Each structure stands twice: as structure tokens, then as C-alpha cells.
């Protein structure tokens, strides 16, 4: 399956720090092997036809990246209950080579990842 990317910058929809809990490392492995899905809540409305990035940091304070996943999202409404924000399921498309992570100058949170471009 070929992934078509219109831009080499992909917006970040979330991140976790693997050092915080071993369960994040296990979740990453289950997602990679298609045994589990990543479900997350956000107050943003996301476009289901667009690629997004989800970052797994080894140590966010040191900006040590374990991996970056890219994929599409699918809205699943309010989950796990009606008090939750918009819930989305992250559908893994791949693990690209990352050139850099772009951070907000105001919040210092990751806003996009820049994919390495390959010249043919």
C-alpha cells in the first residue's frame, strides 16, 4: 500500500511519554502489530481524509523520540461516555522517517512533524 502525502509536514494530534508508564510501550507494540487501536479524545474537530501524526516520546523533557506514527482518524463520537470530548480512532498507515518535530513557540507543544523527503 502506498501512502500519498501532499505535504512533508503532518499535524500532530497527540503524544505520550513512554517513560511515564510501561503500558505506553505495550500500546505502541500492539498498535504496530494491529492487535490494538489508539483511541483518544480531543476538543478539535479532525478531518478524516487527512494524515495526522502521533508521537511516542521516550523522554519528552529531552525530546528523545521512540517513534512517530502517521495515519488517518475516524470519529467515534463521545467515548467512553457522554461527558467526553470528541473521540477518534487512529488508523495506522506507517512509521515514516522524521526530519524534525515542529513545536509551538507559545506552548512548546509539538504541532507538526516534518517527514524526510526522498529524492528518486
Determine Rg (CA atoms, Å): 14 Å
Query: Could you tell me the mean pLDDT?
Result: 82
Order of helices and strands: EHEEEEEE
Shape: globular
- List low-confidence stretches: none
Tally the beta strands. Answer: 7
Terminal residue distance: 19 Å
- Secondary structural class: mainly beta
Largest sheet: 7 strands, mixed
* Helical content band: under 10%
Strand content: over 45%
Main sheet: strand order: 2-5-4-3-1-7-6
Number of helices: 1
Question: Can you describe what's shown?
Answer:
- 9% of the residues lie in helices and 48% in strands.
- It is mainly β and 120 residues long.
- It has a seven-stranded mixed β-sheet, with helices on one face.
- The longest helix has 11 residues, at 22-32.
- It is globular.
- The relative contact order is 0.25.
- The mean pLDDT is 82.
Gist?
The protein has 120 residues and is mostly beta strands. It contains one helix and seven strands; from the N terminus they run βαββββββ. The longest helix is centred in the N-terminal third of the chain and has 11 residues, at 22-32.
Question: What are the main properties of this structure?
Answer:
seven-stranded mixed β-sheet, mainly beta, 120 residues
Topology at a glance:
Elements: E1 9-17, H1 22-32, E2 38-42, E3 52-59, E4 64-78, E5 86-94, E6 98-103, E7 110-115
Parallel strand pairs: 1-3
Antiparallel strand pairs: 1-7, 2-5, 3-4, 4-5, 6-7
Amino acid at each position: 500500500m502506498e501512502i500519498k502525502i501532499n505535504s512533508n509536514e503532518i499535524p500532530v494530534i497527540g503524544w505520550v511519554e513512554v517513560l511515564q508508564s510501561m503500558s505506553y510501550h505495550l500500546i505502541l507494540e500492539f498498535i504496530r502489530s494491529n492487535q490494538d487501536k489508539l483511541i483518544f479524545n480531543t476538543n478539535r474537530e479532525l478531518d478524516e481524509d487527512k494524515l495526522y501524526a502521533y508521537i511516542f516520546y521516550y523522554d519528552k523533557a529531552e525530546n528523545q523520540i521512540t517513534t512517530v506514527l502517521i495515519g488517518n482518524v475516524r470519529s467515534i463520537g463521545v467515548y467512553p461516555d457522554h461527558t467526553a470530548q470528541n473521540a477518534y480512532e487512529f488508523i495506522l498507515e506507517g512509521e515514516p522517517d522524521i526530519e524534525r518535530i515542529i513545536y509551538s513557540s507559545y506552548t512548546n507543544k509539538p504541532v507538526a512533524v516534518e517527514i524526510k523527503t526522498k529524492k528518486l
